[in-house]
Amino acid sequence: MKYRYLGGMQVSQFALGTWHLPPSSKKDDSGIFYVDKEKSDKIFKKAVDLGINFFDTANTYHGTISETHLHPEHSGNAERILGQYLKGGERESYVVATKVRAEVALFPNGGGLSRKHISWQIKQSLSRLELDYIDLYQIHWQDPNTPPAETMSILNDLVHHGMVHYLGTSNHPPDSTVQMIDITREHGWEPFVSMQESYNILDRDVEKDKIRIARDNNMALLAYVPLAEGLLTGKYLTGVPSGSRAGYTEGFRRKIEKSLTQVKRISEISKELQITPSQLALAWLLRKQEEFGISIIPILGATDEQHLESNVEALNIRIPNDAYKQINELG
Ligand SMILES: NC(=O)c1ccc[n+]([C@@H]2O[C@H](COP(=O)([O-])OP(=O)(O)OC[C@H]3O[C@@H](n4cnc5c(N)ncnc54)[C@H](OP(=O)(O)O)[C@@H]3O)[C@@H](O)[C@H]2O)c1
Fold first, then answer.
1. Known catalytic residues?
2. pLDDT tens digits, residue range 165-189?
3. Which domain holds residue 198?
4. For position 144, which CATH number holds?
């Protein structure tokens, strides 16, 4: 494993995400799959064995995806499952990131980035994760109803109370990110050290503005859905394999058709290089670090230990210039 810096803190070149853990075969009363905890624990262990020290979760993640939207009663389940695993190890060897913003209750102040909501949710996340502090606390997406200075002020307080060590953004529009950065500078508050954004061969929106903002402000880019939820593994080129994410999420199935031509080409290039399409997609993201001069940490998702084992091999792959150029032109 290689390690990169978030502020002064070292994190593995790959993080492991918990949005979508392996589902069990049973659903609960609201039609949502339970998480297969035994299998999840094996994935966490494999990650640690591979040198991954960086885990990403959110106060809203249940751990399996549902078609139906708001189910506050499921919020935080992924934090619980991750916390239960991590407490068996050495806390100081792990870097734990979580997020706040989503509606986790149906009453007023049940979501958002207000002082009230954040003050409540930090305690909930710490309790579910069974931790004394969070390494990286991220604001999941914009809350247009809370003045940015209110959010930044409570985040700064959390750091000074020792509940949080570092701060990060996610999914904020470029102008709002710059505005928040300016506010923290003006007040001498704790800075953001990371920006968590969708980034993969099929989604390069961050290259427009956000990468520049991250570089100018010493923020690492945490790249979520680095394999476009599995599309870039090439597994959907010949249909939808049973048990795969698209097998039980209709919304995701609709995306497959649109990406087929690009994924087919990626699959051909990977064959020429004798690597898997996933390894190619991840090695491409790692090479982007050189092009843009910032740290890019892909947040991997896995429903099987083998996924991790194979995908982490991307660390040892350098894509030849020709192939890199061809992939860039596909996006
Ligand atoms: N900040 C945000 O708003 C936000 C949003 C989304 C995600 N995230 C973060 O990003 C993390 C990663 O998201 P993601 O899970 O969508 O990432 P991803 O890496 O794009 O997709 C992972 C999925 O692809 C499939 N897969 C991966 N490697 C494979 C292999 N070698 N062979 C076959 N299938 C393979 C698996 O799905 P199946 O086996 O189920 O098909 C796996 O769950 C999340 O856990 C979360 O922490 C953040």
1. 61
2. 999 999 999 999 999 999 999 999 9
3. 3-231+286-317
4. 3.20.20.100
